[in-house]
Amino acid sequence: SGSSYQQTAVVMLFRFSKSAEFSTHLVTSPHVPVVEIGTNFTATCVIVNTVEVTADSLYWNLSESSVVPEKNYIKINESALAVTILISGEESEWLFCSCKKNSPYVSLNKSKFIHGIYLKKAYPPRRVENLSCVAEQDGKLVSGFLNCKWDAVGGQTEDVKTNYTVMVQHESGTYRSKTTFLNKTMVDLGFFPHFMHFDVWVVADNLLGTVESEHLKQDANEFVKTDPPSKVTAFPEELFPNCLLIKWEHPIEDVRIKLTYQIRYCESGSHTWSYIPLGDTDKVITSFRLQNLQPNSAYVIQMRCRNREGNSGPWSNWSANETKTTPEDRPRSKPDLWQLSGGDHGEEVQIICKDPKHANGRITSFGLILYNKNGPLEQEIIPADQNQNSSKISLADKQFVRVCVNANNSKGTSPEACLILVRSSGKKTTVEKLKVWTQEGQMFVEWKRPNNTAVSEYVVEWARHGKTDWQRENKTTTRTAIKGSLEKFVRYNVSVYVIQSGRVWKLVHKEAYLEQGAPEQGPTINKSYPAYDNAHLVWDEIPLDKRRGFITNYNISYRKENEAPKSIRVAANNTSYTLTELLGNTKYEVWISASTVAGSKSSNPHSFTTLRYAPGTIEGIVVGVSLGFLFFVLMALLLCFLKKDVLKENFWPQIPNPGESTIGNWSPDYPPKEETPKENCVSGVSVLDVGVCEVKLGFEEDKTSLSLKKGKYLSEEHSSGIGGSSCMSSPRQSVSDSDEGPDLADSTASTVQYSSVVASSGYKGQTPSSHSQHSIFSRSESTQPLLDSEEHPDVSLQEGCRQVQPPPRPEDTELTTEPDSLSADTESGAVSSYMPQLGGYRPQ
Description:
Immunoglobulin-like; 5-stranded mixed beta sheet; mainly beta; 9 helices
């Protein structure tokens, strides 16, 4: 190989030596139009017209970014360097040869030390697969254009495309299609040659080569695709309620192509088609009778056709739908009879039935017959109702009832369906471990077979909002899917019943949802009972049709103004709650959200304000104030009781009672003389009736005759009168001489002494008596306070002077003592006498 590289380099040098001038010092080869993806490519770089660099100074790189590793280099000689790379990727790119020496000459002439090869990448052409060609019907003839399509094998790049050409050859010549890059094309045959032999193939070519597909060799009519059968019509026949007669017309003349037909049908609304075997229609026919159909059922019918020769060639499209209903027939199956409530306690039992599965027509009525042990009891005809075919049966007076129902249509009566109702409460046969769940849009029910082996069948029932549906299951079944139409977000009450010899035994039930969602509305807070530091909330449950799932919990959120809310989780079985640790006299906003496994929904906000005072606070204040007031009153009364003398003295001054006073009459010269009080006296002291003016005058006249013992008694003030006619009285006590001793001072200190000097000359204006009369000094010792008039002698004196005193009565004559009767014994103490007032004292 080394010699071949040298020869290549020599050839390149010889070619460039012919040029007048060299524009580069590096030359690369070979420059090919395309390279195949997935193969190895070898290139050579030769140094020309310079000795500045050698092969050791060269290197290779792809698109100026990826340097080829040196392990891929092959050094041919000092002026040639080869490289081998694997072609990968679909995008074309450059392979450059460059110089890595950094000399002044190389630096100044960088463009002369780089040269490259453009690698245009491509896939080699591959043989196409699944070639098929069709000549479609055009009116009453076959089109002269042959449409072919195939599956391309291998890839194509943007720079190098693969060209495809269809070739058709028959006895009249060879035809070819236009070249295309796609996987389908059309060949123009001019007119379609029936009954000739076609040879069809595809040629694929690009810059890397050419390849042919397998040849398709068939009769020309096997490439024809006709129109579907025309005027397809179905006819019901009253005598054959299980059949429909189908008629059609050929889409093309038999002289050009003979056809075979295919028929399919299904019940209206179903997507499961039934096909008629091809052997039954592989004839020149224009009609066919469909059999074994259901009476009074609508069917959809379609047809298509193709070339009958060789049973090959493309099928035509399916014809348009032809829908017809078979005639009615007598019901062939029993109605589905069921009860909506048990008859264990003699109540009314409502029975309901569905149309027979094979009603074979419109059910117009149901015949109800009740039997007991002795035979039929009664019969009833129930008109058919689309919504509910039901009747109520009372077991109040019946122990055993057998209910049988048949269905009627226009063609006859169905077999009877029976159900036994027993009015007894025995031990029930029930299934165990009932389980309900949903999966992939279906609701499944599973249960455990009861111990009693005499089970005839099971009935799976599901009810919601007063609507009930059911399905029957074989006695060996313990797991099934509910086949009825179930709705999302609706709660169903699912039950399984055991049927034992026509007798129904009820069991437990479970609630389930086909699919749960968030509640449609939140709870409604209807009442709140705020207290001082708590509030009791009551809310209504969400209506069943608005829950859309099982409520897992409630969440109570509440907050004060301008504060973050607090939340409390409450169990789903609660409809009330008491919020605690609240502040008094504070407004709160509260809302409640109900949650399911799929989401939650909140109620409208509700506001309340806590009480200003805690319960019992006002009552405590009232009781405390009342007790305090009562205590105050009791203390005041007690104080009044203890200080009654002080209060009496301040608010009700004591009026002196002369009847309780003792008056001592004494004279310095005469001993005191007691006088017996008279009962008819108004006052106990007669001198009280003497006028002040008279006393004063008398006192002045007799002053000289009154001889008082000066050293014995000294009175600061003179007082006269007790009662309303007192004059110049004073409450001051008398002052005794120092020779009287302390005893006298003590005795006088605790009493109020009254003293008066009374003239003995009689009344004013009367002639004095012939005998000498002496003045008398009278003193009274009393424990009673003085009168107000006695404490103010000046006012009493002025008032007393205005009074006109009556003459004294004989019995009120003042007491007199002779001066010679006074003895030295009187000096040691004053003899006091008290004259009580028999008539009491007069208020002042």
